[in-house]
Amino acid sequence: MPIEGEYEPSAWDWVREQIEAYERSDGREAGTFADTGLPVVVITTRGNKSGKVRKMALMRVEHDGEYALVASVGGMPKNPVWYNNLKADPNVVIQDGADRFEAVVREAEGEERSTWWKRAVAAYPDYEVYQQATTRVIPVFVASRR
Questions:
Q1: pTM for this one?
Q2: 1 has a pLDDT exceeding 80
Q3: What is the pLDDT of residue 45?
Q4: Average pLDDT for residues 23-50, to the nearest whole number?
Q5: Can you give the C-alpha Rg of the chain in angstroms?
Q6: What's the pLDDT tens digit per position in 72-120?
Q7: Which H/E stretch holds residue 30?
Q8: Rounded-to-integer distance, Cα 72 and Cα 124, Å
Q9: Phi-psi region of 132 (alpha: psi -120 to 50; beta: other; left: phi over 0)
Q10: Contact 39, 107 (CB under 8 A)
Q11: Where are the domains of the chain?
C-alpha cells in the first residue's frame, strides 16, 4: 500500500527542489546527482519519530529489479536519519523515472552485502571514498518490489 500522510519536505533547499522537479517530470528533470550525470531514484519512507512522509534522492543502484539503498551520507561518522526510518518500517515507495512501485527493504549482511556493495561502487565509485572516510561499515539495504 502507498505511504500516505503528511509530507514533510527536506529542510535542505537543494534536496527539496530536486525531489519536486524529479517527481513533477517523472525523472526527466533533476534525475542525476549534482554534476556527476549519474542517475538517482527517489525513495519515500515514513519518519520513525514523526510518522510523516519523507523523501530523498539516492544513487540508482539496480540489479534484476532490486535496488540498493546505500546509507553513506558522504562517509560521515553516523548513519543518515533515514537509516532509522527503514529499520523501523521497511516499507518504501521507489520512483525510478516514471516507474513508481512499492517495495520492502532488508539490510544486507555478509556475502549479500559484499555483492551489493560492489554493485554500488560500480554505479558510484565515491562510495569507496566514503567508506574509507569513516570507521562505520556503511549499511546497504536491498529493496524488492512487493
A1: 0.95
A2: no
A3: 98
A4: 95
A5: 14
A6: 999 999 999 999 999 999 999 999 999 999 999 999 999 999 999 999 9
A7: none
A8: 11
A9: alpha
A10: no
A11: 13-145
Q: In what order do the strands lie in the sheet with 99-107?
A: 53-59, 40-46, 91-96, 99-107, 140-145, 66-70, 62-63
Degrees to nearest 5, angle at CA 65 with 61 and 70: 30
The DSSP secondary structure of 35-50, one letter per residue, reads TS--BEEEEEEE-TTT
Residue 61 CA, chain-centre distance (Å), reads 9
Q: Which residues of 45-75 are buried (b: 16+ CB within 10 A; e: fewer)?
A: bbbbeeeebbbbbbbbbeeeeebbbbbbbeb
The residue type found at 133 is A
Predicted confidence (pLDDT) at residue 34 exceeds the cutoff of 90: no
Contact status, residue 56 vs residue 69, Cβ threshold 8 Å = no
The structural architecture, per CATH, of the domain 13-145 is: Roll (2.30)
What was the pLDDT predicted at 32?
Answer: 96
Q: Which amino acid is at 141?
A: F
